[in-house]
Amino acid sequence: MFAKDQTQTQTQTQTQTQTQTQTQTQTQTQTQTQTKAQAQAQAQAQNLGPQQNASTPLNSVQQNAPPQSSIAPGIFTTYPAPPLSPPQAAPSAITEGPPSIFPDFFGMTPWLRKHGIGFHFDNTNEYAGALQHPTRGPHYGNYKDGSSNAGQYSANLIVDWEHLAGIKGFVTRMTTVGRYGTTANRMFGDWLAHSSEIYGGGGNVVVHLVSLYGEESLFGGRFLIAGGRMSQMSDFASSPIFCSFQNNSFCGRPKAAADSTYYGSYPAATWAFRMKGRPRKDLYIQAGVYFAENGIYQNYQHRTGFKFNGANIVGYEIPIEAQWEPHFGPHHDLPGHYKLGFVYDDVRRADNYYNTAGQSYYVYGGKQLMRNSSWQTYFMFDQKLMNYPGRPKSAGLTFMGGYIYNSPHTAVRDFEVYGALMSQGLIPGRPEDMFGVAFSYVSIAPGTRDTTMAMVAAGDYSGMPNHATGVQTNAEVLEVDYSINVMRGVTFRPDFQYYIHPNGQVGLRNSAMLGFKSYVSLF
């Protein structure tokens, strides 16, 4: 979050120009070689780093095409792996942060960066209100008209210990938040996808610890090792462009990816260990072990996030992910990201339909069957389709999509399919503005569906799973928004959402919502 891809491009271009000059001395040649190695190491460290801020603008992350002068003609470029030997002197991990209202802040920010410390503070606010009355009936007594607002302020701290104390390649990262407000979708009965994704998990405290971990960079940035309190869903099945939208079906990741309450999802974290390697410039592979804990989203366990003991650890998850990052087009200026992942979790979880005798636990009674393990697999991608002539490199049309499939015996959502189009800089003179449209389809797992069906047939609406008030089958969400770059560090995003089958229930009235999302980067 503290890096700029333009720095890498400018450094590489200058190095190439210097190499072509035949009048340089031997000393100048050695200096230029070292500078190039430093730029490569910095770029690799940036590409391997975790996503810290779900509100990162599209143009600050996606536009990472290499300089055209270094690319041979063709459809896309395959990149050779960088040299194994580390650079002679690694650059600082602390670089200029995202655009902020106070980029200098009375000299504090550049002074901290100079001494190996990066700090960023921002606010995200989301409002949504229903445009029609909720479903009425004997089982829907708590549904009501209304709107709501939710938000958070977050502080991110990164310390480069190589720069500060001479510990080569080691950095620490810490994120805290304070969250407020509630989400409006529950007013008309939906509990599957928050209309304000920023809601929840903050513990209603002034400071809630999200993550705190150390990360070691080896082989010139080609291999990273991290350990500490980490959010699994910030490291895996994640993308900085998911939060181009507001609904929780997309931001901060497709909801089916975080279906399990044992998966640490921002702002929750667990003890974890992660390894990430880049065998070639356009490919990374990562894996980790994340220890599953009871109640990571509950106030009684993790209200502040500073509970570090392992007394509530009940198992572990092992996620594995690979991502390919090609550049398509005749000029290789259409970057894409294609990732494939699998998660195995060794946690005892109740079957959503069967009892220990292999029958419906609701119809025939008995204890629910306990599954010793579960799994998840996913494919996600985003691809820039075109650039807008005469506009900045950040301008263009991007498509993202994906498919997540969960173990149907233990999941609420057995699969989700989603897709979105994002057009940045479409209007001349507004290069940072972005129009987006997204759609998500979520299928309720067969066991969950059949259990709710049996309960409704028996007239038993008390204690239904997932706050259901009827049979759950499938749910869809459509979202349309337009992000307005108000000024440096400030964006305002009018937003429209349309719920089809809220909470996966055909019996609930479809609901349209109107609202906005604002983002303010202070310093």
TrEMBL record:
PANTHER family: PORIN B (PTHR37944:SF1)
Biased composition annotated in UniProt, kind: Pro residues: 80-89
UniProt similarity note: Belongs to the OprB family.
GO cellular component assignments: membrane
GO BP: carbohydrate transport
Protein name: Putative carbohydrate-selective porin
Residue span of region Disordered: 1-97
Organism of provenance: Gluconobacter oxydans NBRC 3293
MF (Gene Ontology): porin activity
Pfam families referenced in this protein's UniProt entry, alphabetically: OprB
Low complexity compositional bias, start-end: 1-46
Compositionally biased residues, Polar residues: 47-71
Domain of life: Bacteria
